[in-house]
Amino acid sequence: MKTIRIACGQGFWGDWLEAPARLVEGGPVDYLVLDYLAEVTMSIMQKQKSRNPKAGFATDFVGLMDRILPRVLTNNIRVIANAGGVNPQACAEAVRMIAAKHGLADQLRIGIVAGDDILPRLDELLATGHRLENLDTGEPLSAVRARVQSANVYFGAQPIVEALRQGAQVIITGRCTDTGLALAPCIHEFGWAADDWHRLAAGTVAGHIIECGAQCTGGNCLADWETMPDYANIGFPVVEMSEDGSFVVTKHPGTGGRVTVASVKEQLVYEMGDPKAYITPDCVADFTTIRLAQAGDDRVRVGGVEGRPATEFYKVSASYFAGYKAVGSLIYAWPDAYAKAQRADAMLRQRLADLGLAFDEIWTEYVGANACHGPRLSGEPARDLPEVVLRVAVRSSDQAAVERFTKELAPLALNGPPTVTGFGSGRPKVEEVVAYFPALLPKSVVTPEVVILP
User: Fold this and answer.
1) Alpha helices (H) in 219-373, listed in sequence order
2) Distances (CA, A) of 230 to 235, 255, 394
3) At residue 54, does pLDDT exceed 60?
4) How far apart are the first and last CA of the chain?
C-alpha cells in the first residue's frame, strides 16, 4: 500500500529555526509543512502591511527557504506553509528572489492560496445580512466594526490540493486550518474524494497531531518529561500516511525526544473542544474513534478514525482594537517576600486611585506564590519563600492612564517595602490590546484564489 511521509517543521511563528532544516537533511521526507499563524499573528501582520505594502508575512520562512531550497528541489520535497499571512503574494515574490539567488528560478514552481482576507469586504458582507456573530458572546461584528484590524476565513485543504494538482512545489497560503496543511498531500497523493469522510478525518487527525511540531514528540509533554532524552536536539514529527487512512507518527532516527502513545495523546487533547465533533472546513472528525498503539521505538500507529460531513460554514478569525495595556514586575527577596509583594501591590493601587485613574482591570499575580495554581492548598503561601515576583497588569481605553501606571511602578523600589530588585529593564511598555472575534460565514460567499506564479 502506498505511503507518503509528511513532516512538520514549525508549530508557530517563532518556533525552532533548526527544526525544518534538520527534517529535510535528516531522513526521507515527501512533504514539509510549516504552520506559522496564530489568531493574534494575523493582526500583527495586517499592521505591518499597512505600514509597508510588501510586508505582512512570516519573514522567517524566506530565510528558511534560502537555507533549504537546493536540497528541497534535489530531493523532490514539496513545501506547504501558511507563511503568507495577509500578503501571500509578497511572500511568494520573496521566495522567488531566493530561488533566483541560487540559480533555481527556472526549476521552482510556486503556488499561492489567497482569498481568505475578507477585511476589505466586511462592510459589503454586513450590508447583505451577514451578521458575523461572535461565537462566544453572540455580539454582531457591527458592534466593533470601526475597530476591526483583521478578518480572515479559515480555508481547508482543497485549495492547497488544487495548487498541488497544478504542479506547485512550494505552496504559500494565507489563513488556512493547521490540519489542512497535512491533509492536502493525502488528498492529492491518494485521490481521496471530497466526501470520503472517514479518510478525510484521518488526514485531519494526522494534521492535528503534528501541527504543533515537537509537542507530539516529547516537547511540552508531562509524560515522563524527567527522562526525556536530548531535549536540545528534539526531533520534529513525521507522519507516514497510508492510502487507507491509517498512519504512523514518528521522527527521524538519532534525534531527541520521544514518540509514545502518551505524547501523542497529550497533543490530541490540545485545543480539541468537543471530542466527538472536531470541526474543520473539510470534515468533522470524531476523536472518540481514534485508536493508538505503540508500534516500536518512537512509532505510534493511529487508526480507526471516523468522520462526518463538513458544515456549510467557514470559521472567521477577526481581531479588533480593545484599548491599551501595560505589564510591569518587581522581585522581592526573602525574608517575608510574599508579604512585601502584597504590601507593594496595595501601595501601588492606592496611589493609582489617589490620582483618579480609571482602569477596566487591574490584575496582580505573585509569581512563585500563586501565579500558576492560586494559593497553596493550605491557604496562604508559606512565609519562607526565597523570592516572589510582583507582576501587575492594567488595561484601559484611556492611554494616558496606562502611561501613568508605567511611571508609578519604579518609585516602589526606593519608597516601598525592602529587598526589591529586577527593575533593570526600565518602565513597562504601553501596548495596544488586540481582542479576538470568532464568527461563521457561509462558504458560498467566499472563494479561494489559487495562483501559480509564472
Assistant:
1) 261-268, 337-354
2) 9, 8, 40
3) yes
4) 36
H-state helical runs in 257-398: 261-268, 337-354
Residues of the chain within CATH 3.30.70.2750 domain(s) are: 321-437
* Closest to 323 in 3D by CA, of 430, 243, 409: 430
Q: What is the pLDDT of residues 190-236, one digit of tens each?
A: 999 999 999 999 999 999 999 999 999 999 999 889 999 999 999 99
Q: Tell me the pTM.
A: 0.95
Q: For the chain, give the percent of residues with pLDDT over 70.
A: 98
199 vs 182: CA distance, rounded Å: 13
Distance from the Cα of residue 418 to its chain's centroid: 41
From residue 201, how far is each of 120, 235, 289, 349, 443 by CA, in Å?
33, 25, 10, 52, 19
What is residue 379's predicted lDDT score, i.e. its pLDDT? 58
Rounded to whole angstroms, how far apart are CA atoms 128 and 311?
A: 21
Q: Could you read off the pLDDT of 114-127 as tens digits, one per residue? A: 999 999 999 999 99
pLDDT higher than 70, residue 376: no
CA 47/CA 45 separation, integer angstroms: 5
CA distances from 146 to 46, 322, 399, 401 (A): 15, 11, 18, 23
Choose among 388, 356, 348: nearest CA to 371.
388
Tell me: the pLDDT tens digits for 57-90? 999 999 999 999 999 999 999 999 999 999 999 9
| 85-109 burial: b if 16+ Cβ within 10 Å, else e | bbbbbbbbbbbbebbeeeebeeebb
Rounded CA-CA distance 163/3 in Å is 21
Q: In this predicted structure, what is the pLDDT of residue 382?
A: 65
Contact status, residue 395 vs residue 433, Cβ threshold 8 Å: yes
What residue has cell string 496564530?
A: 38
Position 268 pLDDT exceeds 80: yes
Per-residue pLDDT averaged across 249-272, rounded? 97
Alpha-carbon distance of 209 to 185, in angstroms, equals 15
Are the CB atoms for 406 and 326 separated by under 8 Å?
A: yes
Q: List, as one string, the DSSP characters of 163-177.
A: HHHTT-SEEEESSB-
CA 38 to chain centroid, in Å, comes to: 4
Q: Which fold has domain 321-437?
A: Alpha-Beta Plaits (3.30.70)
Helix (H, G, I), strand (E, B) or coil at 181: helix
Diameter of the chain measured on Cα atoms: 74
